[in-house]
C-alpha cells in the first residue's frame, strides 16, 4: 500500500448528522450542540472556531467518541460511532484516530521515541521504522529521541505528541487547542508539521482553536455559535478569520 494518499482527498473521513448534546435538565438545559450536520472530507485540514461556550470541544469530543450525543449520529468513515460498545470505541480510538490535546499527556518515564511508538505497542503492532523516521524527521525531533519529556521544551513535547498522533497513520487526527500552551514560534513549528502531514501524506485533521493564526493553517474553518455551525470559510487568512469572529460577537 502506498504511504502517500491523495492530498486533495476523496470521501468523507467523519461526519455528524443532527448531532445534539444537551447538558442538564429541561428548564436549565444547555444545548452544547444543536442539530449539527457537518462533514469532514478526507485529506483536508479543518479548523473549528467560535466564541467561548459555542460547542467546539463538545463537537470534537463527540466526533472522536470521547463523549456521547443526546441525539443524532456521528460517523468515522462508515462506522456509526454512536452505536459502538465501550470496547469497540476504545479500539476505534486506538486504531483509527489520533489525538493532540492542549496538555501533551506524555508518559514522563518514557523517552520521546518510546512515547511516539506507544500507540503501536498498545495496539500490539510493530513500529514501521521507515515511517517512524519520516515522522520524526518531519517534526524536527531527530536529536531529541532519547530524552524524557522533562528534558524537552513545551514546544518539543507537543511535537512528540503530534508525532505520536500520526504514528498509527490514523484516518483522522483530532487536535483540541494544540497550540494553547505554546509560544508563537513553537506554535508555528507544530502547525507547519500538521500542514505538512496534510500536504505530504493526505492526513485528515480536525482542530479546535481560539487562535486565528493557528486556524489560518487549515484548508477550511467552521464557525460555531450557540451549538450550531453558522458559517464556513475556505482558504482562510488570519485577518479574514478575525473579521468573521467579530461578526460572531467575539
Ligand atoms: N460537562 C458539562 N456539564 C454542563 N455543561 C457543559 C459541560 N460541558 C460543556 N458544557 C456547556 O456546553 C456549552 C459548550 O461547551 P464547550 O466546552 O463545547 O464550548 P467551547 O466552544 O469548546 O468553549 P471554550 O472555547 O470556552 O473551550 C457551554 O455552554 C458549556 O458551559
UniProtKB/TrEMBL annotation:
KW Nucleotide-binding (keyword) present: yes
InterPro entries named in the record: AAA+_ATPase, ABC_transporter-like_ATP-bd, ABC_transpr_LolD-like, MacB-like_ATP-bd, P-loop_NTPase
GO molecular function term, any single one: ATP hydrolysis activity
Key words of the record: ATP-binding, Nucleotide-binding, Transport
Cellular component terms per the entry's GO annotation: membrane protein complex; plasma membrane
Xref: CDD domains: ABC_MJ0796_LolCDE_FtsE (cd03255)
Residues in ABC transporter domain copies: 14-250
Domain of life: Bacteria
Gene3D superfamilies: P-loop containing nucleotide triphosphate hydrolases
SMART domains reported for this sequence: AAA
Protein name in the entry: ABC transporter ATP-binding protein
Amino acid at each position: 500500500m502506498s504511504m502517500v494518499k491523495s492530498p486533495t482527498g476523496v470521501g468523507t473521513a467523519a461526519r455528524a448528522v443532527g448531532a445534539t448534546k444537551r447538558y442538564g435538565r429541561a428548564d436549565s438545559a444547555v444545548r452544547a450542540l444543536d442539530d449539527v450536520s457537518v462533514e469532514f472530507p478526507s485529506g483536508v485540514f479543518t479548523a473549528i472556531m467560535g466564541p467561548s461556550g459555542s460547542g467546539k470541544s463538545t463537537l470534537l469530543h463527540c466526533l472522536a467518541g470521547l463523549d456521547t450525543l443526546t441525539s443524532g449520529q456521528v460517523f468515522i468513515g462508515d462506522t456509526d460511532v454512536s452505536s459502538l460498545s465501550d470496547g469497540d470505541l476504545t479500539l476505534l480510538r486506538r486504531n483509527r484516530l489520533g489525538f493532540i490535546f492542549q496538555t501533551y499527556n506524555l508518559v514522563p518515564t518514557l523517552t520521546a521515541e518510546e512515547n511516539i511508538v506507544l500507540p503501536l505497542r498498545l495496539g500490539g503492532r510493530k513500529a514501521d521504522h521507515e515511517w517512524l523516521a519520516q515522522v520524526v524527521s518531519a517534526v524536527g525531533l531527530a536529536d531529541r529521541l532519547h530524552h524524557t519529556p522533562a528534558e524537552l521544551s513545551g514546544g518539543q513535547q507537543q511535537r512528540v505528541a503530534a508525532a505520536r498522533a500520526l504514528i498509527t497513520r490514523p484516518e483522522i487526527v483530532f487536535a483540541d487547542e494544540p497550540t494553547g500552551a505554546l509560544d508563537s514560534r513553537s506554535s508555528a513549528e507544530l502547525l507547519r508539521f500538521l500542514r505538512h502531514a496534510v500536504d505530504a501524506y493526505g492526513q485528515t485533521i480536525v482542530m479546535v482553536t481560539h487562535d486565528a493564526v493557528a486556524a489560518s493553517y487549515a484548508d477550511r474553518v467552521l464557525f460555531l455559535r450557540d451549538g450550531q455551525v453558522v458559517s464556513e470559510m475556505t482558504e482562510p487568512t488570519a485577518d479574514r478569520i478575525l473579521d468573521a469572529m467579530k461578526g460572531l460577537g467575539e
